[in-house]
Each structure stands twice: as structure tokens, then as C-alpha cells.
Amino acid sequence: MRHILLIGNDGQVGFELERTLAPLGRISTICYPAIDFRSPDSIIRAVRNAKPDLIVNAAAYTAVDKAESDSAICEKLNADAPAILAEEANRLRAGLVHYSTDFVFDGGGKVPYTEEDTPSPLGVYGQTKLAGDLAVQKSGVPHLIFRLAWIYGMRGKNFLLTIRRLADGGKPIRIVDDQVGCPTWCRIVAEATAAALTKTLDRHGKFNLAEVSGIYNCVCSGQTSWCGFARAFITSGLPVLPITTADYPTPARRPAYSVLSCAKLQKVFGITLPSWETALRDCLASERSGSCLS
To answer: What is the C-alpha to C-alpha distance for residues 118 and 95, in angstroms, rounded to an integer?
Structure first.
């Protein structure tokens, strides 16, 4: 049976992947502290003990603001660790699935970014994630890198849960309205990953990522601002007031425009992701099971 090593199953995307990948093979899961991305030996030991056919890395340093003052650790987790995973995957003749971010772009665009656009990250988080992407590509390992944006869900730490918690206070909420992106439910990412991997199975039932290796944008369609996103799920009548990025300064600069095109994902794998509005509605009613992909 195909063996998949899922790293970071305690995170938003990783939690969903444990379910969606189950039909594709035997799943071994591991997360911190059983695997410590700060330690190359820990990474190597975990992979060599598992001997997987496929590594799916859903772990990363995602504290965007903290990364500005914690750059050394951020680099270990987001740049060095993926490079080691790629080396170990090559050693095992395994494939690698890895996740990237819209933060590799500076947000100065006006049309949706494609996989061919030149990255220009604004801060440490984006710089280290880009370094990890490049290391995976340079290694020559058969890989799929899914570039994500504005991830949320019903567990963990994310914008949706934070704003809903603030709304419980009953006071008007002020939210940035001049940053635009594609809110994406983490379950959509997990289902798209499983669907793409299914398409890579060869006639022997093995993952064949070599012919489709590359970066794929993987976000819900459409676009909105953070303020617009919040207004879509705060339905209590509580005022949600627009502010500018300048009104809410943060240690890390954010891209003003983070809209990604998923045309390549649709062309190569035939996967069409739902609109962010549809995904949000399904997320809020997520006790209902079933696929979210068309």
C-alpha cells in the first residue's frame, strides 16, 4: 500500500489533510515535538524511520509579525527544513507536497498573480517561504508546491475565529479594507491536494509527480478585502468599520493585492475551486460532510 508521511497534522491544513489523504494510502502523521524543524537530525530521522512513498509537508512558521524579530528560527522552519525534506525524498525516490504563500509577492499588482510572476516578498515570512520553494525546485525532487492565501477554518488561529471572538464583545470592529485577497477554507486546500494527487497515480498505483512538478496557486475564486470578508460572516448587525493599512500598523508589511489565479491548477488537474463566498458558507455549516470541489 502507498505510504504517505504527513507532517504538521496539528495545523489547519494538516488536520484536514489527514482525512482527505486517507483514501490514497496508509497515513503516518508527525508534528512538533516528535519532529523538530529546527534540527536537521530530527527531520532526517523522522523521514528515514517512516520510509514514505510521499511526503506531505503542512508545517511552517506562520507568525508573520513575529518573524520580523525571529528571522533565524523562521528561516530554519520555512527554508532549511523544506530543503532537507526534498533531499530525503530524493534519497527515498519519494515525492514531496509542500505549501507556499501569497506573501512571496509584494502586492503591487493589479491583476491576479500567476505562477510565472516574479516573486518579491516584503518581509521575513515571505522571504523564507520563497527560499523554501526554491530549495524544493532546485533539488529536482518530484514535487507539487501549492501556493495558498488567507487560510481560515473552524479550528486553530485564524482571521475568522479571531474576528468572531472580538464580535462577541458587542463593540464595533475596525478592519483593514485596503488589502485584497482570496479567503480560502483550509478544507478546500486539503481536498484539492487529494484530488491532484489522485490524478498523478500511474497504472501501477504509484504517485508520479515528475510530469506535473511545479507550483500551483490554490485559492478560492473571487476576491474581497479583510473588511468585506468579515462582513460576510458577522451577521449580528454589529458594525464592521473599514480602516486603512496605515490605521493598523504591524511589524510586517502585508501585500495590498494578494489575488492569485488558479488557471494552471484547472488546466493541469481539471480542478475548479469554489468562490470564497460558497466556501465560507460551507465552512460555517461544516458539520455537513462531503466534497467542496466542482
So the answer is: 25
| Domain boundaries, given as residue ranges, for the chain | 3-284
Give pTM, 2 decimals: 0.94
Residue from 61, 99, 113, 125 carrying the catalytic annotation: 125
d(CA 131, CA 98) in angstroms, rounded, equals: 13
**Going by DSSP bridges, is the β-strand pair 180-181/224-225 parallel, antiparallel, or unpaired?**
antiparallel
Q: At what angle do helices 124-139 and 81-92 cross, to 10 degrees?
A: 20
With contact defined as beta carbons under 8 Å apart, do 156 and 283 qualify? no
Active site residue 152: no
Q: Domain 3-284 - what CATH class?
A: alpha beta
Q: Name every residue whose Cβ is closer than 8 Å to that of residue 169 and which is 6 or more positions away in sequence.
A: none
For 127-174, write each residue's pLDDT tens digit. 999 999 999 999 999 999 999 999 999 998 999 999 999 999 889 999
How far is residue 260's CA from residue 282's CA, in Å, rounded to a whole number? 21
Dist. CA 188–CA 17, nearest whole Å: 10
